[in-house]
Amino acid sequence: MTMTADASLARQPATAADDLVVSVRGLEKHFPIKEGALQRVVGQVRAVDGVSFDIRRGETVGLVGESGCGKTTLGRCVAALSDPTGGGIYFGLSAQHRDRLDALLAVPEARRGEAERRALAEIEAAHRIDRLQGNAWRNFRRNCQVVFQDSFASLNPRHLVKDIVGRPLEVYREASGTALTERVVELLEQVGLGRQHLYRYPHQFSGGQRQRISIARALALNPEFIVLDEPTSALDVSVQAQILNLLHDLQQQRNLAYLFITHNLSVVRHMADRIVVMYLGRVAEAGPTEAIFDRPEHPYTGALLAANPDLTDDLDGAMRTLEGSVPDPARPPQGCRFHTRCPVVTPACGWEVDDVVRWLADREAGFDRLSGVERKDAFEADLVFEDDAAVAKLSAALRSDAVPMAMREATEALEVRGRKLHVRFRRVSEVELTPRGPHHEAACVRSGPLPV
Amino acid sequence: MLTNLEEHDAIVRAPDVIASVRDLKIHFRGKRGMVHAVDGISFDIRDGETLGLVGETGCGKSVTARAFLRLVQTPPGVYAGGSITFRPRRVCDDCSGVGCRECDGTGRVAAHCPACGGKGCRTCGGTGEETVDLLSIPDAQMRALRGNRIAMIFQDPGKALNPGLTVRDQISEVFLQHRTAEILAAAGVSPNDVLLRRQASQKSRAFEKMLLAVPPLRSGRNRVDAALDTMVADALAQTQIPNPRKVMDRYPHELSGGMRQRVMIAQALACNPDLLIADEPTTALDVTVQARILELIRELQQRHKTAVLYISHDLSLVRRVCDRVMVMYAGRVAETATSQQLFRRPTHPYTRGLLGALPGRGAHRGRLAAIDGTVPELVDPPAACRFVGRCPDEVAACSRTDPPMVEIEPEHAAACFVHAPPGKAAATRPVRTP
Predict the structure, then answer these.
(1) More confident residue, B345 or B113
(2) Fewer CB under 10 Å: which end of chain A, C or N?
(3) What are phi and psi of B44, to 5 degrees?
(4) In this complex, is the C-beta atom of B298 within 8 Å of any C-beta atom belonging to chain A?
């Protein structure tokens, strides 16, 4: 791998064609977990936990990941439908402004000087979507539209198609009366419907037609950017093909930028210029579509690709599958979040006390005897058992082949102290994205191609 | 029980066919007339094979599957004709279902025809094996087959599992309904113990339950419960659920989607059925979970040699999972073939359209071969090919009469005047090859 040379390529010099529509920087969205009669906050679900990427004009960015990885939440934040907990979404930055912003954000908040703080505030006031005011806010709103997955739930069942598609035009005083009707007919024709559909209700349409109405509504104000949240996952393949063709044609005609959120890898491969793979609220890998599909750098991407059935697969090879389930996003694993399921784990991936507890939960004998876990931090704790025999048994088990090799190697201390078992793992920090190729980044401690 | 003796002979002559659908018609009474959801389809399911049923929403594939268990709601549904002949097996006596040489490791052996006791008569066509028409047998007999000889995995495990029952209660029901004798034997209780027998078949009334809570009788009840727990845990362990004893006490909402689907599979395979109907079992799941569930179904199928009717709209999945594929369009069969044949040489324009519409490696962006138009309404459809109006290769004959199923090569048949012209091929009968 020529990592050092490619690292400089990842940030190319600014050109006019490099105009950005949306830039996401360090975005976080946490949902509080409330408990009891007083609804006390007992924890946070880290749905999106530090995500950064750019969407350029006329480009499609695919956002893929399993359910619960935070891709829909991210889409809602980008469309300003929910407020982020941290980080920011910047709209309409020029390339110079983007570079300036990145330089400013690279300085930790405590060490920013007065001039830097003022410069940052200036950019934020003009571009950060939760700081926009008045006309700038209205401008953002009309330029950013959303098409939702469930077209039945996202169209008001008591409104006529004319009202649904015409409403954005009314709100922005673009047209009224017969002019409005004509504009609506024009929009319907663009998405393959017609004048005869004006005075009908959503329930009178098929799933594909309803999704076309959603798209017509999103197009009404001639936006620059559309968030497509699983637009075809409720549709049949033949209808999906029609909608994908339509979306592509519209993009060609209007130079639209899409954020295409989906779990279908075949669709995203077909549609996206660049792909962002998310896992448990963080970006696992991001890069150009061909690079992601031909040379996946993150084992999670590799696993997703291997699990995706394709008409050109080799049928003799068994489908490679992932073990285990997605961990609880309220307590994301330390180090690399994927290490609990990763097929190529190393001792440096962030083994922690929770891994022992998780491992015990899958065993019948022994876990019932565990009465408590006294944690010092995520990597060091005392496991308290009800009797001495269970402690000895677990301690022996943790030294045996029953646990993954990498986990044993990452164990720094394993001592029996009466009814307590003291465990300490190697301390590691969260794995950051590192450049792997032109515009291609992955968050994995390993480097080099994945072993097949 | 069987109406058409000629059809009946067909199934009987092929010993490996365990279910045979002939000219099945299921209609729904609508405001504007009869909706012909399934309109005369015929196919066979052979023992131990996976038959894929592919088609788009509303093509009748789920209704066909539900007809096997007689789960179509009537009214508005109407079984308008045809038959589904099924050959139920019974648990092997020698190994009590574990699998031995006698039953070829499946744990199931042929059941004797009740009319002749296995000697061979007209009802069973001389084979001596029990043969029933699923659409005409009495409700009690159907109930004895459901979940026992024919089981079903539903699309959305979140909706198909009862949210008010624990996993233990949910799976216990299957055993209580169909395996009372086995429960009692495992618990070491005499089958003549009326109270416990009723307890082990879900027939206990409130006062009987109270009686069973009283100390001398309680030990018996506890033994029955323990035996039942073991059976449930074994069923769950088969689906590779880690720590089944713990999962048993959970409610469906406490489990992830993949785990719920495993519980559904455990429940469906609990009684080692002859035929498993999987109605889009992975549509509600993530791609990584989907891959594991598919592997699981395939592994369990190979171990028990169960026949599977696999319903899906995803051709790339069907290609991986199925031995034979049947493509349905608007209530009719468009094409049947082995999996290899279908993907190597798709014949019906609809099959070709479906394959072309998949975004794959070769397709250029914006150039997916979408099928124009929409699925026709099935209210009193005229005698014509259902694909008329969307078909790129249409000829005049297409809108005049129904195209018959024509065999193109062994095992491969299509209903199309253009690509499978009648007369050229060896046979024009409904597809079935020895």
Answers:
(1) B345
(2) C
(3) -120, 150
(4) no
- Residues B267-315 have pLDDT tens digits of 998 888 889 999 988 887 788 888 888 888 888 888 888 899 999 888 8
- Give the count of beta carbons closer than 10 Å to the beta carbon of residue B31: 6
First to last CA, chain A: 17
Structure tokens at B187: 């618990």
B363 touches chain A (CB under 8 A): yes
* Chain A CB contacts of B298 below 8 Å: none
Best interface-test mutation with A: which of B288, B311, B352 has the largest number of A CBs within 10 A? B288
Could you give the CA distance from residue A428 to residue A426 in angstroms, rounded to a whole number?
A: 6
Q: Which residues of B touch A258 (CB under 8 A)?
A: none
DSSP B253-294: GGS-HHHHHHHHHHHHHTT--SEEEEESTTTTS-HHHHHHHH
Burial class (CB in 10 A: 0-12, 13-18, 19+), A41: exposed
Which of these, B235, B93, B89, B99, lies nearest to B167 by C-alpha position? B235
Share of chain A above pLDDT 70, in %: 92
Integer CA distances (angstroms), A187 to A82, A166, A220, A253, B86, in order:
28, 9, 7, 13, 54
Each residue's pLDDT tens digit, B9-53? 444 455 678 888 999 999 998 888 888 889 889 999 988 899 999
Residue located via tokens 């690279």: A106
What does the buried/exposed string (b/e) look like for B340-367 if buried means 16 or more CB atoms within 10 Å of the residue's CB? ebbbeebbbbbbbbbbbbbbbeebebbe
Residue B360 in contact with partner chain A when CB distance is under 8 A: yes
SS3 state at A94 = coil
B296 close contact with A: CB closer than 8 A: no
Structure tokens, A183: 């504009």
Pairing of strands A257-262, A225-229: parallel
Size of interface A-B (CB pairs under 8 A): 126
Mind telling me how many Å the CA of A399 is from chain B's nearest CA? 21
**What whole-number distance in Å separates Cα of residue B391 and Cα of residue B416?**
10
**Cα–Cα distances in Å, from A204 out to A25, A231, B180?**
42, 19, 50
Task: Decide if B288 and A248 are in contact by the 8 Å CB cutoff.
Answer: no
Angle at A292 between CA A291 and CA A298, to 5 degrees: 125
Nearest-CB residue to B288 (from A66, A238, A267): A66
Distance, in Å, from the CA atom of A145 to the CA atom of A226, rounded to the nearest integer, reads: 5
Q: Which residues of A429-445 are buried (b: 16+ CB within 10 A; e: fewer)?
A: eebebebbbebbbbbbb
Beta-bridge partners for B52 = B310, B325
**Identity of residue A13:** P
* Complex ipTM over 0.85: no
Of A67, A209, A321, the CB nearest to B291: A321
Arithmetic mean of pLDDT, B356-379 = 78
Q: In whole angstroms, what is the distance from residue A154 CA to residue A145 CA? A: 13
Cα–Cα distance, A358 to A342 (Å, whole number): 15
- Comparing CA positions, the residue from A107, A238, A263 lying closest to residue B358 is A238
Q: Which amino acid is located at B249 in the chain?
A: D
Q: Would you state the structure tokens that stand for residue B414, as one six-digit string?
A: 């299509």
Cβ–Cβ gap A307/B291 under 8 Å: yes
CA–CA distance, B241 with B243 (Å, rounded to integer)? 6
Least CB–CB distance from A249: residue in B354, B358, B366: B366
What is the per-residue pLDDT for B217? 83
Distance (Å) from the alpha carbon of B118 to chain A's nearest alpha carbon: 42
Distance from CA of B373 to the nearest CA of A (A): 9
Helix (H) or strand (E) holding B414: strand B412-414
The whole-model pTM stands at 0.84
Whole-angstrom distance, CA of residue B131 vs CA of residue B124: 6
